[in-house]
Specification:
It is built from seven helices and ten strands. The chain has 219 residues and is α/β, with parallel strands linked by helices. An eight-stranded parallel beta barrel has the order 1-2-3-4-5-6-7-8, surrounded by six helices. It has a two-stranded antiparallel sheet with strand order 9-10. Helix 1 runs parallel beside helix 7, helix 2 packs across helix 3 and helix 6 runs parallel beside helix 7. The longest helix has 18 residues. Bound molecules: the ligand O=C(O)c1ccccc1NCC(=O)[C@H](O)[C@H](O)COP(=O)(O)O.
């Protein structure tokens, strides 16, 4: 299986184009107003059109209600929902049934105990995204540029594809993949010059570094 690279929190045409041209497999759009990467439905619609099936469109939401998801379906028609809040297993099932899209559940990790939720989610989710657990006083549950202890995933037995995220950048993505054995990586802060401001050169460098890792490991 080839490595999946996701660039999250894209909000401009220019940086979306860079991610597509550099070969991102997934492009993520944040629909969460407190985030510096939040996109309106109108912007989501515009950026979604630009993707033209060159990558999977991922809609990131946080404990969104049905009306919000309905609006995102209409604007972006995402290929996948990334659920980054406290969504329960039952809510995942409900979203899949109502909206007919695969779901990627973000699982916040700070200690081994955080992995106890996996059997429940694994029964319903299509993919798991391991992310660093945000501090209690954080204004958002992700996209903070902080890594977690990747060793916690070292002996993971999970019958589901999973990606790793949290504080990744071009210089540590190889190590994250080596330690976690993840099938994909997701980045936001590590390809930005300031919160919410994507840097085209950092996007290209991240994708290059991630791809180089996989080439090394199949040799
Ligand atoms: O990006 C945000 O602002 C955000 C807001 C609310 C929930 C999640 C959010 N981001 C998550 C991601 O962008 C990625 O899935 C991942 O956590 C990478 O984040 P980073 O550590 O910034 O690379």
């Amino acid at each position: 299986m080839s490595l999946l690279v996701k660039i999250c929190g894209l909000s401009t045409r220019e940086t979306l184009q860079t991610a597509l041209d550099a070969g991102a497999d997934m492009v993520g759009f944040v629909f969460f107003p407190p985030s510096p990467r939040h996109v309106s439905l109108e912007t989501g619609r515009d950026l979604g059109r630009q993707v033209k099936r060159r990558a999977l469109k991922v809609a990131l939401t946080v404990d969104a209600d049905d009306a919000t998801l309905d609006n995102i379906m209409d604007a972006l028609s995402p290929d996948i929902f990334q659920l980054h809040g406290h969504e329960s297993v039952a809510r995942l099932r409900d979203i899949k049934q109502k909206f007919g899209r695969p779901v990627m559940k973000a699982v916040p990790v700070a200690s081994a105990a955080d992995l106890a939720v996996l059997p429940g989610y694994a029964a319903v989710a299509d993919r798991i995204l391991f992310d660093a657990r945000a501090p209690k006083d954080a204004t958002r549950p992700g996209g903070l540029g902080a890594p977690f202890d990747w060793q916690l995933l070292q002996n993971l037995e999970l019958d589901l594809p999973y990606m790793v995220s949290g504080g990744l950048h071009a210089d540590n993505v190889a190590e994250a993949l080596r330690v976690t054995g993840a099938g994909g990586v997701d980045v936001s802060s590590g390809v930005e010059s300031a919160p919410g401001v994507k840097d085209p050169e950092l996007i290209k460098a991240f994708i290059r570094a991630a791809r180089a890792t996989r080439e090394l490991s199949v040799r």
